Amino acid sequence: MHAVKDSLLSAQDMPIQKRKHRKNYAETRQRMRWTKEMNLEIVHCYFKAIISSSTSYRQSMHRYWKQLYPDTTFTEQRIADQKKQIFCHANNTNTLSKRGHWLTNLEIEAIKSQIINKDGKFQVEYYPCNKLKGSTTHCGKIASPKTNEAEVIESCLSIYNLIKTKEAPDGVLLDPTKISKSLAGTYKEGKDYDVMDEILGKGLNGQIAVVRDRVSKTDHALKTVMLALFNPNEIRAWVSLEGCSQFPNLYMFNKIDGKIELHHEILKKAVTLADVINDRMGKLREYPSLLHHFSLYVLHGLLEASSTMHSKKWLHDDIHEENVMLQPQQDPSDSPLRLRMIDFGRVKNLKEDRVVNDIQGIIRIFTSVYLTEKFNDVYDLQKNWETKLDKHSDDFNLSYDHKQELLALVKLALDVTLTKEEEDLKRIVSKKLKDSREEAPEILEDIAKLIFPENFPDENMDVTDGPCVQEINYDIFAVGK
Ligand SMILES: Nc1ncnc2c1ncn2[C@@H]1O[C@H](COP(=O)(O)OP(=O)(O)O)[C@@H](O)[C@H]1O
Ligand SMILES: [Mg+2]
Fold first, then answer.
1. Index of the ligand 1 atom closest to the CA of residue 275
2. Measuring CA to CA, which of 136, 185, 330, 423 is 20 to 30 A from 376?
């Protein structure tokens, strides 16, 4: 009876308690409004999901989403609905005014081609290409609007005005010893620098090219990001990390033809951890103590890099094997190996010192180095870490001590949520590394010889088939095999 009566009451007639509840609900709904950034991420997740999963793309799209926004409670259905909405809007909306936080077909197309380029083997059809005609990604281009001309003109003029009032340049030169801009204050391909044949790597944003400054004749790396997809925090974070040895230095950034160019330091002879794991660890895996030390070394290096970023209030949010590089010794005063973190394309402000996303990325790299277990996603990691690592430890004949240590470390790392816990973990790993080095002071050199045999031509190693291990006496490391 009461229930029926309540349902007939208007909001004003409701008892205070109930009105309050409804208000809260409305507020919650408001807070969950989708932003442009979230919509871009949904499309990213969608393409990643259809590449990586042939069966339930919805499930894996949701998993990717949860990696990016672990605090949201959206269901699979909600994410799938949102994806559908984004694509509908892209096909139906041709005006700036209606666009708001929705994406254009060209923006979607750009994400699609990045992801497919990276994989190189996938073709996705989700809307007829002729629908692209008349699409309105004006960012960095000259528009010829068929509708809403006045509005397009105004949006363009407001940017001109902003540039004028802020006296904003197109770019900022951070290291004039590496980059020689022209007298006119520009830095252009074919005039001030040349693109060389060498490609350093490929990521979601395309290739990282080697370019040569025409005046200094020195080479540096060039990353190009489409303005429509550019995250300004990439530059903010990179600049704030200037001089921190775990990262390459940024020399200059520049907006040119609707793209942002990021000129930066080449990490000489560096290889991604993905390549190290896939191609360079065969011999290392035959020596339990070397493998143990190297895995701890990587874990420690990752924690050093991430905690440096966290101390500057940045969350990397994209720590994976392609975004970490290992460098062999550059000169005799250097350490035999160096771990460098790259790619700030997804950097976010660190909120409430919560570092979970980065730590999960770190754990997945650590277990991948140690036992080739990457985990499918964070859910797989959280749910199956113990069973999977227990099994792999046995498959890889890890000693009892090493296995227990690995399980304990992963358990500890999974409990890390805040920066201070990350510092504690780093200290623990640092102590273990120190102990291991005390037992075998040359251990890192020996590891470097196995991973980068080409860097040790005098060591009489067969570079094509990997190093000749008999040349190095590792008997001491066989303990615990
Ligand atoms: N400074 C660098 N020195 C050497 N190689 C690099 C450098 N920066 C990037 N790379 C290579 O290029 C790839 C893509 O670079 P990244 O910055 O991650 O681009 P994206 O944002 O597109 O993923 C990396 O995985 C790596 O192989
Ligand atoms: Mg990358």
1. 27
2. 423
